[in-house]
């Protein structure tokens, strides 16, 4: 469904991704693990078309999208929930969702809210007045209003209380299982990623250096040795 081939991306002359390869099939839930500054956000932004690619290719379904504009990628079914959520803090929850549903058929927002009922009683509040976890749910809901086939999430658990982390995990698994939403999630929270992803790619120094199974993350020695992020 998504093929990333030998992707090179950088800022100015500074290389950050040095030939990333990643193959994601239909129905997947893929985790990407890596230390701070390893290029996880750079990879997500490049997949969404927010950063130019120096070389390599990105193929989504049957189309090569390597230099496609972000809004075209969104229309073809890729959604991006950025690190730090980036909802509109001054707009109400309802208007945040409307921004995501601009091109969606009538009733889309209501269907999304049925998936995330917690947001229903917050519709008239400004986005900025929500808790971090509620804002993350809002960011996911807004992305869902575009009816994506693939969702890219960048550190959705960052700074969020455990009860909502669990809720986010359950929501993403439900969307994956019932609506075949393909999920690629960047994380540093090992427990979250072990519960959510079925495959985990480790990003180090601009390369995916290996893939591990969720169960490997329960083995502390393994984590120390290969992921280098002991819990
Ligand atoms: N706009 C930019 N201009 C120049 N360098 C940048 C820019 N954005 C990021 N970088 C650098 O690129 C490298 C990778 O950054 P990136 O944000 O992709 O890492 P990350 O793995 O997402 O980190 P984190 O875990 O902190 O979110 C870092 O060294 C960072 O300083
Ligand atoms: Mg990042």
**Describe the biggest sheet?**
6 strands, mixed
Stretches with pLDDT under 50, minimum 5 residues: none
Helical residues, percent: 25-40%
Number of domains: 1
Instruction: Please report the number of helical segments.
Output: 8
- Percent strand: 25-35%
Query: Order of strands in the sheet with the most strands?
Result: 6-7-8-3-9-10
First CA to last CA: what distance? 33 Å
Query: For the record, what is the CATH homologous superfamily label?
Result: P-loop containing nucleotide triphosphate hydrolases
Name the hetero compounds present: adenosine-5'-triphosphate, magnesium ion
The quaternary state of the protein chains shown equals single chain
Per the principal axes of the C-alpha atoms, what is the gross shape? globular
Got a strand count? Answer: 10
SSE order, one letter for each helix or strand:
EEEHEEHEHHHEHEHEEH
Query: Overall mean pLDDT score?
Result: 93
Second CATH tier, the architecture? 3-Layer(aba) Sandwich
Secondary-structure class? alpha/beta
Any idea of the CATH class?
Alpha Beta
Radius of gyration from the CA trace? 17 Å
Description:
With 231 residues, the chain is an alpha/beta fold. The protein has a single domain (2-89, 143-227), classed as P-loop containing nucleotide triphosphate hydrolases (Rossmann fold, 3-Layer(aba) Sandwich). Helices cover 34% and strands 26% of the residues. It has helices spanning 40-48, 70-76, 93-100, 108-115, 132-144, 162-179, 190-196, 220-227, and strands at residues 2-11, 14-24, 29-33, 55-60, 63-64, 78-81, 150-154, 182-187, 199-204, 207-212. A 6-stranded mixed sheet has the order 6-7-8-3-9-10, sandwiched between helices. Helix 3 runs parallel beside helix 5 (132-144). 39% of the residues are buried. The model has no long low-confidence stretch (mean pLDDT 93).
């Amino acid at each position: 469904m998504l093929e990333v081939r030998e992707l090179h991306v950088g800022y100015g002359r500074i290389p950050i991704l040095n030939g990333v390869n990643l193959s994601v099939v239909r129905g997947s839930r893929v985790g990407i693990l890596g230390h701070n500054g390893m290029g996880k956000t750079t990879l997500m932004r490049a997949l969404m078309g927010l950063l130019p690619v120096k070389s390599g290719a990105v193929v989504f379904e049957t189309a090569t999208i390597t230099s496609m504009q972000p809004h075209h990628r969104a229309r073809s079914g890729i959604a991006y929930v950025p690190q730090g959520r980036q909802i509109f803090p001054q707009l109400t929850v309802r208007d945040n969702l409307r921004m995501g549903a601009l091109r969606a058929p009538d009733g889309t927002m209501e269907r999304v809210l049925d998936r995330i009922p917690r947001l229903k009683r917050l519709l008239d509040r400004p986005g900025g007045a929500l808790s971090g976890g509620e804002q993350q749910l809002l960011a996911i809901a807004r992305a869902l209003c575009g009816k994506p086939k693939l969702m890219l999430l960048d550190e959705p658990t960052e700074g969020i209380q455990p009860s909502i982390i669990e809720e986010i995990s359950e929501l993403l698994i439900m969307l994956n299982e019932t609506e075949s939403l393909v999920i690629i999630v960047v994380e540093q929270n090992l427990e979250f990623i072990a519960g959510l992803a079925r495959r985990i790619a480790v990003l180090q120094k601009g390369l995916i250096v290996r893939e591990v199974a969720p169960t490997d993350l329960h083995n502390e020695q393994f984590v120390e040795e290969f992921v280098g992020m002991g819990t």
